[in-house]
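Lab notebook: predicted structure, single chain.

Context: the supervisor wants predicted structures on file for every construct in the current expression panel, including those that have not yet been purified. This is the next one on the list. No modifications to the sequence; it matches the entry in the shared construct table.
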Amino acid sequence: MEKQMNKLKNILITMTTTIVIGGCAVTPEPVTQESLVQQRDDDMNRIFANQEPVEGPISLYEAMARALKYNLDNRVKLMEEALSVGELEVMRFDMLPDLTLDAGYHWRNNEPGASSESLITGTESLEPSKSIERIYFDNSLIMSWNVLDFGVSYVRSQQQANRVMMMKERRRKVIQNIIQDVRYAYWRAVSAQEILPEMDDMLQQADDALAYASELEKLRLQSPMTPLRYQRSLLVLIRKLWTMREDLSTAKTELAALINIRPGTHFELADTGTINDSSAKRIETPVEELEDLALLQRPELVEESYKKNITTLEVRKAMLSMFPGLEFTLGTDHQQNKYLFNESWNSVGYGITWNLLELISGPARMRTAEAQGDLADMRRMAMNMAVLTQVQLSYQRYHLALRNQKTIKQLDDVQSRITNNIVAGKRANREHALEVLRSETAALLARMRRHTAHAEVQNALGRVYNSVGFDPVPDQDYEAGVEELASNIQTRMEQLPTTL
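Prediction complete. Output recorded below exactly as produced.
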């Protein structure tokens, strides 16, 4: 038997040594190029998977609907919200009693005997004997419930429930910002779709005129300064046109990113031709009412209220931790041991545990939690002031944008008439062609500014909605199709400002 035990001991030592050495031998390995390629392909497929295809020109409301359904930032916030809900479900299990199942097999190489000695005489009072078998099996099932742990877990669950609501408000804010960004990017993209083809034609005309001027300079048919001045004027025009083009060329790419269309994909926008309409939605609601609405429904302010609830519950949790814990236990045991009179039995018990150090640290933690509550109040008041300022600024900028749009429209009309008069002139020489090109460039610039002014009005209008905390589709199931969601957004938007 002793040889067998020594052999078993050597085997265990060898196995343990092998496991330890194997664990220490682990070394970091770089990610392979093949795995990176596979990850890239998988990510690209997942980013644009399960999306309704674009069929026909995209309207403003369809762009908003696609952003709400497919924008990656929104999907991240949605997953964070789902994660917080899952954490709340996990915390609810902490309020349940502990239920422990224990089962084991016990073996020893010799008998578990023992003797006893008299405390009075010091002589052996019982010959060596045993009360447990050398090999036996036992199991138990014990349920325990600590009242203090239940109270603390309940408070923590309430705090997590408030965090879940905070995540909902943060997602509301992300949605509002996305809608605001889509509105502005959409109208800039419409401007690009209308202006860029005409701008490219004008750039081609300018390049042709520049090439002709270079030929004249080489032929020396005129004074050298004449073609040089002509070329300089053309280059100034070309630079101005390219500056205008640079500002518009990225508009569609920015919109594509917001609505989760792969960059570089060609798509058309539906609202062309309406951008010159000077009639924009008027906000008739007094600014004071807008301020009251903002203080009630801005996501940031609602989130601060939930933060205040969490700090209030933190005070309660600190107070609970100073109380003693009352624990109840209920269990059933079984042991296969022939020396036991009863191999199975049930047990009930209760006990009190009290961490006395909590009495010392508890008041300090309560004071800290109360200070956090005061900080939350002050932070909320500062946020209130910031919200009021944002409402006022957005309201003022909205009306300034309307006034600016009116002026730019008048300038566009005047420049258009000037260009028509110059083009209708009778002189047909290169100087006149340069003047025509200058005038057409100025007219194009005026039209571009008119488009930009329209986009700025739409942007200012969206900022008013955003500053008030307006939800484009409140309590809406975003699993609806793009067409249905776009229709709901359009209905909601067309009700404004009377329902703002």
